[in-house]
DNA sequence: ACAAATTTTTAGATTTGTCTAAATTTTAAT
DNA sequence: ATTAAAATTTAGACAAATCTAAAAATTTGT
């Protein structure tokens, strides 16, 4: 990847756009709108248009006027490399520096832009090649492959079924802190005991104890069903 | 230092100027010239003038037209905080990720700009609060204090005196690789056996073996004399 | 299908950090 | 003490990334 770090310079701003387009595109191949990008990045649509042209010129996106943008293969690879760095740094912060999962995002947003292939590969090795980040999101490998776990929202699980909590949908500090306070953590075994029709809240069994949780919470927790 | 990371925003460019002014100022309180800064940073004197005004406005330097700049106390603290980060990251790269001492500078130049007090303090703790970086330079503590070792250049040592190699003056990759190739490393015990008047080269004893080194090399190695 | 609402783009301006070329100040030399 | 040389600053320009306001295209509602 000599190419990357030297010949083809990508600015921090470009990287942030590419990452955002990747997340909004959500592996479907349809176009992402200027407005959606602007809203997500807290910027103006006109700024997005300018950047869309630049990214198209550099080969990261296909841009159709008035339609939106989609990442090229090159753009997807670039996005995956940034996401890989972001998530590996998050694991590093939690595993090696005892950050809590609600503190890692901000710092990883900075660290993901550090340009050194050797650095991130060494971090990967130091962490023993983790497959998931502290929020349960998959970490792309060096060659851009990653395994999306077969998982479902707790709110979508059938009565009496059991599984392991493997991820969060909402990664806001507020939600993560709430989970900590209620001893809900990744790896916990959860069984749906009862569903309340009225407000769609759930009675669950988690690690032995019984718990009542709102729909809002249940619809932001990912569960991997037991085989 | 809440102040720092939020209220008072320092750009990466400003940080690089502050760092350069600190190094050129070399703890003497006299002014650093525009030209010197420009040369060191591979930029133009006119650019330095512009930045000098901005840094003065923000309180980092005292700027006297046609005379030069010197850091204020605030500027010195800022410089020490950047240098602290740079050197701690260098130790991290060597100690935890097995980088060699000639590979760390480039990456540390990027990492030193990451803004998170918790991050750098955690790295500091992880490394067990090192006092010196891989090149033997002192690491400022959180409150900006650091101990400059009592040391001298190998080329300035008297005949028959002995000491420990504690640092390098030239930190270029070329020099560091040369030292590696010749098994010269920090911590080695060195004794001056003979000095050649003609070219000022030295015969030394290092860790048992005898070695002939040029003045160029000897004048870039720091030795701490044995008590 | 057509007018209204929404989305997107264009045009022109701003900020940051840089440059070149010209003007000014300081330093050095005789 | 003048003048020549060197260093420094000013003025004006440029690229990147952003903004606002206005224009153009698309979508929506009836």
TrEMBL record, chains A, B:
Gene3D superfamilies: 2.30.30.90, Iron dependent repressor, metal binding and dimerisation domain, Winged helix-like DNA-binding domain superfamily/Winged helix DNA-binding domain. One of its GO terms (cellular component) is cytoplasm. GO terms for molecular function: DNA binding; DNA-binding transcription factor activity; protein dimerization activity; transition metal ion binding. Keywords: Activator, Cytoplasm, DNA-binding, Manganese, Repressor, Transcription, Transcription regulation. In the presence of manganese, represses expression of mntH and mntS. Up-regulates expression of mntP. Belongs to the DtxR/MntR family. This is Transcriptional regulator MntR.
């Amino acid at each position: 990847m000599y190419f990357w770090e030297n010949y083809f310079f990508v600015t921090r701003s470009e990287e942030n756009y590419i990452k955002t387009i990747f997340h909004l595109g959500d592996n479907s191949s349809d176009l992402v709108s200027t407005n959606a990008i602007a809203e997500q990045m807290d910027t103006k649509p006109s700024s997005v248009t300018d950047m869309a042209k630049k990214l198209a010129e550099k080969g990261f996106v296909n841009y159709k006027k008035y339609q939106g943008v989609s990442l090229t293969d090159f753009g997807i690879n670039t996005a995956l490399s940034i996401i890989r760095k972001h998530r590996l740094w998050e694991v590093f912060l939690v595993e090696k520096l005892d950050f809590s999962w609600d503190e890692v995002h901000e710092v990883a947003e900075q660290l993901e832009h550090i340009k050194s292939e050797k650095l991130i590969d060494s971090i990967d090795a130091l962490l023993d090649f983790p497959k998931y980040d502290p929020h349960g999101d998959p970490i792309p490998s060096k060659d851009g492959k990653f395994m999306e776990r077969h998982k479902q929202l707790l709110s979508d699980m059938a009565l009496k079924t059991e599984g392991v909590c493997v991820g969060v949908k909402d990664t806001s500090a507020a939600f993560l802190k709430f989970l900590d306070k209620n001893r809900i953590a990744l790896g916990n075994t959860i069984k749906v005991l009862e569903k309340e029709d009225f407000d769609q809240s759930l009675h669950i069994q988690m690690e032995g104890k019984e718990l009542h949780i709102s729909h809002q919470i249940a619809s932001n927790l990912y569960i991997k069903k037991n085989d």
